[in-house]
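Table S7 (text form). Paired inputs.
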Amino acid sequence: MMMMGDTFGTIGSSMASLFFIWATVQQIFPNHLKIAIKEFLLSSFQQLCFAQRVSDYFTNLFSPYVDINFPEIDEYRLNHAFSAIETYLESKATDKSKHLKGSQLKENKGLVLKRDEVKIRDEYKGANVWWEIVTASDEERSYKLTFHHRARSLITDSYVPYVVEEGKLIKAKKQQTRLFTNNPSSQWILSHNMWRSIEFEHPASFETLAMEQEKKEEIMSDLTAFTNGKDYYKKIGKAWKRGYLLYGPPGTGKSTMISAMANFLNYNIYDLELTAIKNNSELRKLLTSTSSKSIVVIEDIDCSVDLTANRTKKERNSIEQDKDESSVTLSGLLNFIDGIWSACGQERIVVFTTNHLEKLDPALIRRGRMDMHIELSYCTYEAFKILAKNYLDLDDHPLFKNIKSLLKEIEISPADVAENLMTRNHIIDVDESLNNLIKALEEKKNSQRSQHDEDKKKSNKFRLFG
């Protein structure tokens, strides 16, 4: 907060200037004009808005202070300096603050106290500075930094870089993965409020993921290579992003895989709902406002928007679609994934999921766009052993042999296997859980055999009448 002496000094300078102007008027103008000018000034100063304008003008004219604004959004993109400054100011000691804000976001965590002040004073190498959060009429937020012009080079060359780097370090230390989802454009205020988020607390990991160990290690190795690949991507002239296509039947762990990837990398997740986006322009604004070190997810992409229609039909209607901008198009999505806009932001992963690979346009999932295709299929014996360890803390059992034999004959998702292994009332009964699973597997085996026989009869019937 600006010191009281500085404030009075500014007011005194402004008043001295006004008296000087009035003295000049008295010396130059004749009496009848003096009276008119005096009446005009008195009536004007009775109006608050005019008085404020005059005050601001003379304050700015004679003030020894300099302001720097750091907007939250700059040219449709997040200003990372704003976020770093916010983190830095939140970390300042609260023992001297008179206005605090208390919150308890988790029931088992303690109360967190933060500053709740519009203006915050800071000191750097003997120079005083004042930070103020400013909200414009269009709801755009910015931090305003005020300091004396004598410290200009110290503040701009040393203090501001120090604050930004310190904020980034603090944020990295207490980084909490967050899950974002896009708001409908009707709720946007310019480029603000496009995303809303919550803390991401899914416990999934590659260790607990029901998948063959060899495949898990291949995915983890690919993710690690990507995060360490900044110089490599620059060398080969490609945007630092990577695409993953997860496909397979429902319940095979596609969403769990995304959670495991986010926890493994400590990346934020942006769950993009395409049906809430009106056109390609909105899509571009949304995607360019995502942060680096993030996973952009489009789940069930075959159901999101019409990206699966006949390619010839799309090309025929593309001019009309672009003209009225009524929907997101395939070209609009591809432009972000692999076009010019793909370079807006660093260290991003794009993930598509689908239950029906055959429905997707080949252009959408070709290698280079979706760099790694990962099939998540029905439960194998190796995947079952991981689930048994997760749910029953069991490495081996005499009934495993029976389960292994049944899994070779039938198709069942890991989600269905897990449901049968889940203990009741949190009391582990290994034999009961495994027998429940065997019973479910045998029922599924009989059901699939009946379905196969029925399909065979229909096929023979059509052949007979054909």
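Next pair, protein 2 of 2.
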Amino acid sequence: MSHTATPRTPRFGANYTPTQGWFHHWLDFDIDAVRADLDSIARLGLDHVRVFPLWPLFQPNRTLIRPRAVEQLVALANAAAERGLDVNVDGLQGHLSSFDFLPAWTQTWHRRNLFTDPDVVAGQEEYLRTLAAALADRPNFLGMTIGNEINQFSHDPHPDPDRITHTQAEAWLERMLAACEAGAPGRFHLHAEYDAAWYQDGHPFTPGQAARLGGATAVHSWVFNGTAQRHGRTGTATEHHAAYLIELAKAWHTDPHRPVWLQEVGAPAPHIPAEHAAHFTAATIANALDCEDVWGVTWWCSHDVSRELADFPELEYSLGLLTNDRAVKPAGETIARVVEEWRGRTYRPAPRTTALVLDTDPVTAPDRSVCAPGGAFFEAWASLTAQGVRPAVVLAEHAHDTARLAARGITATVTPEEVD
């Protein structure tokens, strides 16, 4: 089997954070404000947005999916289309910027497990199917993401998790993806977890699920997870963190050229100070696009959160490519320049011929903390990268599979113990 990566044109987008009312804007939906926001995003040259209905507002009762809310989502998608923007929709919100948004019919007196209760799961299926079906005939509708980092509800450190096994997590993902497909057949449906799926021992959502289920593998890269604290704002591990997650994900792929979507990445202060955000943005994108089979990069986020809104973690107020009054920030200028440089180009990075071997169970990956910042595997990958090696990642059980290695262009392997 030969190495036959397909040249790609990378996609560039933003996670849309409305300037008026943040995601509470669904309560006072103003299509003119949305259009102005989307105008400012489109002026950066971006080609897509990821948007976030708030689940409790769209489905306040298990058998009530509000038609007006669905109409507003379609109106947003139509406004995006008018500006040349494709749309991905996250369904189960779920969790956003430190706040949980769960409908009352899953909480307190009606407390039921989000992932295993038959009535809750059936309600989620109908909700996702309804949203997908409402957008199925829109040419700019990319597809559904099941929800934003909903895996955080399943395990520590959530203060009140709905605990499940990895087999229950997989069954839930399969049902939710099937519901999206039923609503909008043939679209680009996927799921997305925060990095506990890659880094946390025993977490029920696993790398294998991310790498096998859905139309692409999504990774969310945040260097406030210990990476920047340990390696500094310009450290190799910091500027290559997104690339590391992309390569780590590929170790579990059964299709050697399955697309990977860098669906969330941002420059969080104070770990990345404001005056260094542009440099970090440019370095992160360049390093991510030095990986093969990257579908695209979607920055978090489009606009800063308004200081009029209370109780957000401090970093959340400054993550935008644009200010809350839609002025372009240095990171936004950087994104616009990168987009212009890539316009009309296809790319196929040179294969990563050396792979770092990860010795873990391929199904449950019980010892994932070795892959986290400070873990032996993470630090070995960063060390190789600092030496200019451009390492891939391969599971130990595949390290001697010559056909699999050849399909990825890998000609040599090295273990963490062998890394200087």
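The radius of gyration is 20 Å.
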